[in-house]
Amino acid sequence: QVQLQESGGASVQSGGSLRLSCAASGFPYSAYCLAWFRQAPGREREWVATFHSSRSTSYADSVKGRFTISQDNAKDTLYLQMNSLKPEDTAMYYCAARAGPLCINRPDFYRDWGQGTQVTVSS
Fold first, then answer.
1. Percent of the chain with pLDDT over 70
2. Residue 98: which region, alpha, beta or left (left: phi > 0; alpha: psi -120 to 50)?
3. 29 or 64: whose pLDDT is higher?
4. Using 50, 70 and 90 to split pLDDT, how confident is the model at 104?
5. Is 123 helix (H, G, I), strand (E, B) or coil?
6. CB 72 within 8 A of CB 79
């Protein structure tokens, strides 16, 4: 059974940085896609970035150049380094996973989700 657990969320001021982590267990697949999504109150869940098992990455335009998605060499932790944070980055951040060769930026593509970690950016 796949388990994902996010951590690292906090309250920071605009311009600050945070690194989110997503610890994965029960995920033995050789081909997979991992992703970060976020959801602000009253808004739909929004794709942030994806990491494929080939180590290719993709980013939403709103975070490109500020956020970096990565995975540790042991392949059991996914990271999201967030720099130059803005108030509009305030949201609950979720990691998601799906086995297989594809990476798609729609939340309905992913079968496994973490519980989320809150990021609040004040101006």
1. 100
2. beta
3. 64
4. very high
5. coil
6. yes
Cβ pair 9, 21 in contact under 8 A: no
What single letter denotes the amino acid at residue 79?
A: Y
Taking only Cα atoms into account, the Rg of the chain, rounded to an integer number of angstroms, comes to: 13
Give residue 108's pLDDT.
97
CA 7 – CA 26 distance, rounded (Å): 18
Amino acid at the residue 6: E
Question: Which residues, at least 6 apart from 64, have a Cβ–Cβ distance to it below 8 Å?
Answer: none
- Report in angstroms the alpha-carbon separations of 3 from 28, 63, 83, 92: 12, 26, 27, 18
Contact between 106 and 37 under an 8 Å Cβ cutoff? The reply is no
Left (φ > 0), alpha (ψ -120 to 50) or beta: where does 15 sit? Answer: left
For 88, list phi and psi in degrees, rounded to 5: -70, -5
Give the helix/strand (H/E) hosting 95: strand 91-99
Contact 30, 46 (CB under 8 A): no
Spatial distance between the Cα atoms of 67 and 18, rounded to a whole number of angstroms: 10
